[in-house]
Amino acid sequence: MTVGRKQSSRLAAPQPPAQMPLGPVIADVAGLALTPEERERLRHPLVGGVILFARNYESPDQLRSLTRDLHDLRDPPLLVCVDQEGGRVQRFRSGFSRIAPMRELGRLWDRDVLAAVREATEVGHLIGSELRAVGVDLSFTPVLDLDHGASGVIGDRAFHSDPRVVALLAKSLNHGLLLAGVGNCGKHFPGHGYANADSHVAMPVDRRPLAQILAQDAAPYGWLGRSLGSVMPAHVVYPKVDDQPAGFSRRWLQTILRRRLKFDGLIFSDDLTMEAATVAGGITARAAAALFAGCDMVLVCNRPDLVDELLAGLTAPRNRHLARRLSAIHPGLRETAAA
Question: Residues 173, 177, 182, CA angle at the centre, nearest 5°?
Fold first, then answer.
């Protein structure tokens, strides 16, 4: 009995949620459950969310347990995100519905407009309801890139080549996500569909003039209005507009997206470990450049060592809009505010 009491006295009590505002860094985790090191990392004041991958999924019950642990770490709860587009980019598969590539909705539009609009809403609701059931707050979808037939990394992820069709199908998809209580993110602003290089491994360049990009690829961002909860800029250089990739460009994010297109939602950087992001320097310089350009949150994926380096070195600029923009797309924050 004495030994039992001594052993039980040494058991660590569960830590209460760390009460602090959410920060600008989106990190990831390695496996199916949190390690002590990951718990400590995710309680850092600069962290505001987590992106999940296929490696984090075994079953709906396991994923539900993982997201519950993630939400319980912080108060307000961390934003839990995933790329669940459908087609090639669907992180959770077994136990989830198979989602066709978005190009199929575009093809349906060409045959029957009303059927395509209805189907897009149903697809959005299906994605959202399955994610909400396992505790995921946001899917990095829809892809708003136009299908120019040039980009292999975009390809059938795009709805259509016509920006009007893209905007209307994306709006319907977003409506379905919203009905299910899951946030959305339009990507990759102002458009990745014309540049043929893959920004994961190279620097894509789009040499078209600004007027052409605004009339075509960037147009859906202005047309979608409040149905677009967040935006992710492209790691693409548009040299006739700016010599920096869009995600590091104040002209693209502040002058064009915020002021000209009137977007006031959250802006996420694309993954700062991608090859095209290295033009901004080391990880701390990349994050600082993205935040200075106008990103509200920055993603650092698959490199926990770089997350730790960033958390140790980043001095984040004050962002008086971050909490408001997060609460607009984060069900956990809306529920906290209503409690």
Answer: 150
| Interior angle at CA 324, CA 321 and CA 329, nearest 5 | 125
Catalytic residue among 28, 198, 206, 270: 270
148 tagged catalytic: no
Q: How far apart are CA 135 and CA 223, in angstroms?
A: 30
pLDDT band at 2 (very low <50, low <70, confident <90, very high): very low
Half-sphere exposure of 98 (CA within 13 A, CB side): 2
Q: Is 270 a catalytic residue?
A: yes
Considering only CA atoms, which of 25, 4, 12, 21 is closest in space to residue 271?
25
Model's pTM, two decimal places? Answer: 0.92
Task: Note the pLDDT tens digit of each residue in 132-188.
Answer: 999 999 999 999 999 998 888 899 999 999 999 999 999 999 999 999 999 999 999
Cβ atoms of 321 and 296 within 8 Å: the answer is yes
94-47-286-278 Cα dihedral, nearest 10 degrees: -30
Structure tokens at 144: 């708003």
